[in-house]
Amino acid sequence: MVLNDLAIREEVKGLCDDDQELAETLVAQRIRATSFHELAHLVQQPLFLDTPPCPSIVDARVADLARWCQEPHSNPVIKFAAGHDAKFIRCLSHVLHRVEERLGLERVPRPIVFDGMGYGLSPLAWYESELAAELQTFDGKLCDLQTLAPPAGFVKLWQRDLTRFIRDLGSLSQIVADLTSAMTLFSREQQCID
Ligand SMILES: [Zn+2]
Description:
By secondary structure, this protein is mainly α. The protein has helices at about 5-15, 20-45, 55-70, 75-80, 85-100, 110-115, 125-130, 130-135, 150-170, 170-180, 185-194.
């Protein structure tokens, strides 16, 4: 994981005039928020390091990622398909609970960890609220979360968001086209195996 702290410092500059103390606080919050967000991706999608892809695939993926980072991604479908689904939100909620409630780290503002509204979803705090009992009681490995059914209220909130999201998007063919294009980042390894 690489964190671009220079970009983060640049971003907060416009938010706090010359208040250096506030700037340091905002930088620290964003660094923690980004770390926890990416940690949740790692936890719920384990890496398989014993089977490295062939060099040409690595080159192609690096080129894809470089292009991906430079493109504006205003379409929420693309963000949605890039791993920010209910499984991710649930895992992220557990990561935050463990670092804040069990390790005692300072609470990070939710919109900078995962901007639910920007992803066409309800705020992360709403999902956390539906998971409240599970967050308190689940002590297992986070990668094992997928073997347990999530609470009904969490599923209901996700279904409601999904329904609104699809209703607001317009045509089904456009949704399929957007989701397919978002998957190009993840499809090259499959081509290598074939
Ligand atoms: Zn993410």
